[in-house]
Amino acid sequence: APITDDNANVTATAAPITDDNENLRRGKSTCWLENMFGPVPPLLTNVSQHMCRHRAVTNMGNKDNFNTIALRLSQGLPVNVVVFGGSVCMGQCVGRDTKDTFVGRFLQFLETTYPTKAANTHHTISNLCKDATGTNQAWEAATKNRDIVRNAHIFLVDKGSNDIQESELTGTWLRPGHTRGSDSLHFWTEALVRELRTSAPNAALLWVETAWREWYDSNCQQVLKHPCVAPFHRDASHAHLQVLEYYDVMQISMLRLLGPLGSVKRRTWVDQAYFCDHYHPNKDGHMLIASTIGQALDDIIERKRESGLLFNKSLSTATTTSPINATSDSFLPIPITMKEEDLKFLSAKPQIQLDLTDPSVVNVTLSEAGAWSYATDIPSKPKTLMTSSAGTCATLNLGKPTREIYMLRLNLLFSYEGFGIANVELVEQVKGSKARVSLLSETINCKWTSRTSQVSSVEIKPQRGHTPGSNIFFKVCLDESSADTEQKLKLFALTLY
């Protein structure tokens, strides 16, 4: 039928779209969670909900891993979130208050979208992030905090930028057996996945790749002394993905969401909309990360509801959670990077742990000091065991380990200037003898070519076993080649597995 005057009048007098209606319309189509974070920033209006729920998800993984958290959230029960990451989730660029990071924003999402029903209950965040650390140290944090890890309902892991720095830019990242490069990256990614899966088999596991390196020309010129090259990013997300696909773990990539970065226009937009510098997201970037995680979780829960997989029964009787009672890693697939001896090490508890920033630990264990001392050369930096005298050595008495030694882990300071070469050795003194036998020896260059400084771990496997009941000593020397220039060494921690 042709349009009548009445129809025309109705059309002409219909209320125009107001700001509120526009916000509501955009809220349904954009990734940004406006009801929590306010109006979407102008530069991010084109990042749609569909992009966050699908484009950003580089590996969906097994959705059954989200059964427990989906059921708890649907029933108004509190959930525990455990986060592993580096300076991004520590608040670089947005302040050290967790609430301003994507971690805190994700907690805000949970509290707003899935409030708890019982009085005096709430969702919790355990932030196990640490500046400038890779997945190897996330694994270490997980093993040291197993009480926290075992009670988790969802894990968030953000290591894409730090892993690529540790494994490629610095060349110091080692796996047991002293293998360098991407093999170490795969190894520690798999080690962390297996640790989290074993400790909390019913918890959801989500890898979140929030940042990348070597993508903006001004930064490449400053650090690398040449322009950035295609594909205009360096990060560990692809190496992570090779392991995560095998273990059916979900991965979200902010690079996949905002990229590709082939054009100057796109890189400029990403720089302005997402980053505060060339490594860390800005305030809007953190809220976009939280929005993306929240959208992905919403999508999973909505699909489970539509499929009838969530229902109003107690967790104790709900069969959809498919609980796994794991007392070992026997329910996990065959490892892809690990040998049997690696699995022994990964399941072993530390035998000896020395925090060398503690003066009492240094005083008790330092048997031969040489020119080493508990000190600092920079007043604003913590004191630890250090030296600036080339050719001098320190020896620590580690006591008598009761089990086989699988690995020695050292936490040393690495920097681009003023640091030398460490010669380290682990020796045993057989009971009833003054002779000392070497169990391992290694040379570690603590000077980096990249302009960065951080405490990083080095893992070294013994070349031979020790005699039970024998005394173990650790010896560290600043190599004599460091005498040509003023150089130093700083040792922060030692762990014997």
Task: Please summarize what this structure is.
It is built from 17 helices and 17 strands. By secondary structure, the protein is of the alpha+beta class. The N terminus is likely disordered.
Characterization of the model:
- It comes from Eucampia antarctica.
- InterPro entries: SGNH_hydro_sf (IPR036514).
- The chain is of the alpha+beta class.
- It has two domains: 19-345, Rossmann fold, CATH 3.40.50; 349-496, Sandwich (Jelly Rolls).
- Helix 6 runs parallel beside helix 15, helix 7 packs parallel to helix 10 (182-199) and helix 10 (182-199) packs across helix 12 (237-246).
- The protein is built from 17 helices and 17 strands.
- Strand 2, helix 6 and strand 3 form a beta-alpha-beta unit.
**Biggest sheet architecture:** 6 strands, mixed
The total of beta strands comes to: 17
Principal-axes geometry comes out as globular
| Overall pLDDT | 84
Highest-level CATH class of the largest domain: Alpha Beta
In the predicted model, the low-confidence regions spanning at least 5 consecutive residues are 1-27, 168-173, 177-182, 312-329
Q: Beta-strand percentage?
A: 15-25%
The value of Rg in angstroms is 26 Å
Strand ordering within the main sheet: 1-6-5-4-2-3
- What structural class do helix, strand and pairing data support? alpha+beta
- Tell me which CATH architecture of the largest domain applies here: 3-Layer(aba) Sandwich
User: What is the CATH topology descriptor of the largest domain?
Assistant: Rossmann fold
Helical residues, percent? 25-40%
Distance between the termini: 83 Å
Number of domains: 2
Number of helices: 17
Task: Give the name of the CATH superfamily of the largest domain.
Answer: SGNH hydrolase
